[in-house]
Amino acid sequence: MAKPRRTGLAAAVGLAALSLAQPSRADWTFAPNASLRETWTDNVMLAAEGQERSQFITELSPGFVLQNQGPRIDFRASYNKHFYKYADENLRGPNGQNANSGQQNLQADLKAKLISEMLFLDSTASITEQGVSAFGPNVGGTPANPFAPGISSEIKTWRVSPYLLHRFGSQANAELRYARDRVSSDRSDFGTSTSDQVTLNLASGSAYRQIGWNLYYTRQNLDDSIAQSSSSQNMLGTLNYLYSPQLTLTVTGGYDKYDYQSLGGVTKGKNWSVGGSWRPSGRTSVQLNVGKRYFGDSYFLSANHRTRTSVWSLTYSDAVTTTRSQFQLPSAVNTFALLDQLFQAQIPDAAARRQAVEAYIIAAGLPPSLANSINYLSNRYMLQKQLQATAAFNSARGTLVLALVSSRRNGLSLLDVDAGLLGGSTNTLNDNTRQSGATATFNWRLSPRTGLNLTGTVNRSESLTQDRSDNNRSIRLSLTRQFARKVNGNLEVRRVKGVTAVAGRDYTENAISASVSKQF
User: Fold this and answer.
1) Minimal CA–CA distance to 171: which of 212, 210, 213, 207?
2) Smallest Cα–Cα separation from 288: which of 247, 326, 254?
3) Which residue has the higher pLDDT, 376 or 422?
């Protein structure tokens, strides 16, 4: 395993260096930042009634944003390290665990043109906190309590994907892409996995006006430190018919093949679908496909509508997937993307709008994602069916963001590869789950420099194997103040009620915090 990992990292460094060596008219910008937060909580370890421990916690969070937007390079990296210092240095949890000493977050994205009109590079890297179980407190986005141990795991990912583009005149366009990625965590019972993937996409060119076509093939080889090595192949052919300028009809057909240790069911078969896309205006679009795959009926829906003061979105999809692929391609609702659409009417310029959205997210204290799909750790293949709905409204003084998510996951590969994650009688808790969540965030601008934010979240997790269901709820009220152009303050109170993941004990937490942040 060591040699392939070194080869992948060497390729990542070499391709990134090649992209950075290209001439670029844009300047690199480095913006450090830091925040200091003081929190008092009456239940720092999320213990059951009668075992609560109150605590003062001082949190120091240095970080930076590094970016470059130019004709050949589009790069952005944001990083923050959180250090926690407790008033009681001997603080222990109900089972004798130490409180978390800190955590870190990284999100880096690079898009580069290595050879004009021919060779390109996409690359990403991330460090995030993810829930160990489908049950327990929500740790995605901005967690209510990051101090309690055992409910989350640090996930590190990177992905390097060079690709070639070629045009066959006006007849066809081709893309050949290679991707290598890696996912690891700070838990030995969640496998470190490395993937190699090759994708070929051939689509009709501009010569085909009313009838278009597309041929797609991908193969992935997955090497896992816990689960047996596996592979997958997907082939798909698509035929499009332009019925009218607003309506396009679509027919697809193909074949799926998965090679993993299954529970005895079918892991390969033909697929087909029929559907189309409807675009009555530049602000409204609907895409719907209905078909069948080897695991049963399959559906896809994507509907979007935008007005001058609102954005609406509804999506549904089903797919055979893994936890690691969910970490590489997050399915949560991206806060930046949603607000970028919402502000499009007021700020047409993309660069100016990006700066405005980033400033708004900081001022309002919004998390990077909304209504997180509540991913959890698993080394298995699973069938996921997920529905997401979002709506955002903007007025002269206020912004309201609503997000809903509902997902169903059924384990497909052998259960024993997850034996160490939960253990004991709870080892089937994540086997077949139904999860749903809702988030509502309201920001009211009291003045150009002062805002009031109210956020409520509700999450429900159900185990269809063990007949268990848990509810987790939180409400947060905060007052934000911009003291200077790059200095912001925040005062927040919160109340959280929920159930811990494995022990299944009810807990309640009340907390108040004050912070000041500075961008340099």
Assistant:
1) 207
2) 247
3) 376
